[in-house]
Amino acid sequence: MSAADFVLVLHFFYVLFVVGSLPIIWLGAWLKCSFIRNPWFRYGHLAAILLVVAESVLGIVCPLTVWENTLRQVETDGSFIQFWLHRILFYNVSEGLLTSIYISFAALVAMTFKWVPPRRH
Question: What is the pLDDT along the chain (121 residues), one digit of tens a residue?
């Protein structure tokens, strides 16, 4: 795996954490699982989506995207990982639409704090 592929995989897992944690929290609340109330998990999740929103509102390109693109300038071969993860992560839509989606998702994450509050054990 190339360095650029490693950064792309890291980016994918960051997105998976941000997007995947919300349904896991809701499902965990419904199943009465205690791990979804862990403050480290919950505040980490909130911080992760707020970072995405801040980057989008301020017009900052994600550092992981910049890092991968810098590495790809040196590497010319397209790998299997690069092909599929790029298709999953990157869309050709307006920045305004993406910002609206990010803000809406962050609002859902914040509202989930009210509906399913984190608790210390």
Answer: 789 889 989 999 999 999 999 999 999 999 999 999 999 999 999 999 999 999 999 998 899 988 988 888 855 556 666 776 777 777 788 889 889 999 999 999 999 999 999 987 6
Amino acid at 81: I
Contact (Cβ atoms closer than 8 angstroms) between residue 75 and residue 2: yes
Alpha helices in the chain (DSSP H): 3-30, 39-58, 63-74, 80-89, 95-115
Contact 110, 45 (CB under 8 A): no
Cβ atoms within 10 Å, residue 60: 11
